[in-house]
Structure formats: C-alpha cells, structure tokens
User: Fold this.
Amino acid sequence: MRFSCHKSILNEGIAAVQKAVATKSMLILQGVLVSLKGNELQFTATDLEMGIQHTVHIIDAQEEGSCVVPAKLFSDIIKKLPNSQVDIEVKDGQMFINYKGSSIELQILPADEFPTLPEGSDMEIIIPSDVLKKGVTKTIKAVATEINRPVFTGILIAIKDGGIEFVATDTHRLAILSSSIDYYGEFKAIIPAKALLEALKFSGDIKLKVSGSSQIILESNTTKVFARTIDGQFPNYKQVIPKEHLSAIKVSNSEFKGSIDRAILFTDGESKVIKMNGSEKISIASASQKGKINEHINVEHNGEPIDIAVNARFILDALDSVGETVEMELNGTYSPVLIRDEGYIHIVLPVRVS
Assistant:
C-alpha cells in the first residue's frame, strides 16, 4: 500500500472510528484497519460489539493494500506531525510515514487477522437526520447504564405504517418520542445506545440497514456504524402510560428548572429526592443534614392538589427535552409523573419516603 495525502485526512479517518476501538482486548482489536482501494481510503475499527467504518477520498493513490495500525499510537503520531503532506508506504510488516524529509517506521499487523464486518443487507430504511437526532437526544437519558441488564442499555426503535417511535427506559423512568417517516413496512429492534450516538455525528439522512436477524448498519455518505441488536423482551411500555389523570399542571420550564436546581443542593444520596405539593402555587422542597429549602412557584393547575416525592435529576432530564411551557400530569402520591410535549412523553416514577 502506498499513497500520499494531507495530515488532516488521516486525522479525520482515525478520529471517526476511535469510539469503536477496543481498549482491553486482543491486540488486533486495539488497532484500526487501514485499506486503500482505488482512490478510497477506508478506516475500520471494531470491539466486536460495535464497528465503525469511515471512508475518505484521496487524489494521490499509488498502490492498493491494507494493514492494521495500533490505534492510539497511530492517532498520537498523526496529531503531532507538522501540518503538511504525509507519504505512507507499507512493506515488510511496517508502515513508513514520511513527512518534510523525516520518517517514522511503525510496526503493523496483517489485515487478514482483522474481523470481517457485514456487507449486504436484507432491508433498508431511510431515516431523516432530524428525526434520528430528535428521537435519540430526547430518549438517551432514560437508557440504563447497568450492563447486567442489556435490554435497557439500548433504545427501542419501532416503525410501522409511516410512524416511528424511539423508546428508552431504565425502569425508573420512560421516554418516548413519536414521529413520522416515509416507510410503511414494519421494523422493531433494540439498538445499542452507543451506536445511535455515533450515528448522530452523521450529516445528511441515515440509511438503517438490517443484515440477517441481529445485525444493523447505520450508514451515511462517508461513515457506517455496525452493531448487533440487543436480545431480550422490551417491556410493554404502552401499558405504563396513564390514560387519565387527577391533576394537571402547566408551568414555566425555566422557573421550574431553576427551583429544582436550587432544591437539589440540599439533597443527599443518589436518589436526589425532592418533594412537590400544592395546587395553584406549588411547593418544591428538600432537606438534609446540610439544611433545607422550600420554594413556591405559580402554576396553572387543574384537578386535585399534588403531593409527591421524586428524583430531581430525572425531572431535570425530562425538562431538558421539552419546551418553555411544561405540561405535567399526576395521579396521586404513588403514581408516575407524566411530562408531555409535542410527540414526546416522559414518565418518572415517584420515590417512596417516610
């Protein structure tokens, strides 16, 4: 393999796939596969759970080939090179990096030891970039972080009859974003959150490709993200959504958020419990060994007075995903809090306190 390009092109390629490089695994998985075919220079990384492939176009392609470079060292080398053209040549198990009359010899691994990523697909769905971005950003905070419960570490994407839903839950809260899409078949899978976060970096619409029964590919013009769908039964989330409510509140998001931000200063532990009660004017309170706070904010209220304890962090996460007017529905002290916005629902379970 032999080619020449500007340093910035190599920087772009290695940075695009960095998130898929394994940090503690087989040596081959700690590397990046660099391949040249025609004028297309391709960078590929995988940790066997997620793969990323990024392609750049170069003008001076002299000899096709491929090899695996140590990801971190190669990245550090390229970052520290002068801002100039770089000449790359691979031969005899080494990569020769030449720049401004100087050279580096880098030990490499053979390309045939690198895992193969799927190429074909059985289904292809175009997801507009704004739909994917909105769906992922509004549900990602409800994804669980405990890897011992893998079904909750992804986002359920369900497509049917021109509608698409993004759903995430960590069992303490549930976030659902509904939108429309120009696809009238059916698709339903739990996709790892980290793969979807990588796809948010794409520009332009995204192709969602399905390969076999468990492999998905998220593809843009220059980048592909490969991931396995998560096995397991996602909860019947529609049953959790309350069909009625005893109390309804409309409140200024900025005022509500400011009050909760101050109340959280006086909470202890991970649960960050605050209490909310009242009707036309609701009290937001917390207390601990550090002290206590009790604020009152004006709201538009219908129905019964509210009296509930909740995790303040969860409420703040929900408020980050809605507009300036917050619509909140409640069904008593021990029932979930439901926060609505256009096409969006966020449900937070209450905290039981003495």
Remarks:
- The helical segments are 7-17, 71-80, 129-137, 193-199, 253-263, 312-319.
- The CA atoms of residues 35 and 66 lie 4 Å apart.
- The mean pLDDT is 95.
